[in-house]
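Team,

Forwarding the record for the chain on the shared tracking sheet. I've put the sequence and predicted structure together so nobody has to dig through attachments.
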Amino acid sequence: MRGSGTIINALAIVIGGVLGILFKRFLKERYQDTIIKATGFSVVFLGAAGTLSKILTVRPDGTLSTGGSMVMILSLALGALLGELIDLDAQFERFGEWLKHKTGSDGDFMNRNLTRSVIV
């Protein structure tokens, strides 16, 4: 089924979020931070691996060839420019403040959950 990966990913995020809320009190903050860093690193690694698997290919004669690297560079540059033009960072900050107000949480809530949202 087309789009099933997106549905599974969304469900995994929801289930992980619920489990995180339920078991948060059992983990020290130090462990929580380590888990967040490990998750972030794995997301970066998986993204790089997925990108490089399409850019770097091994030819039948055993040599390495590259392709599509300019598309990646242009995509990153245009994405960064667009993010700056619409001030995406400030938008996330406002969204975090809104969430903080709606949930009645402290400022630490915004930092953790926005980091998780952006990473995942």
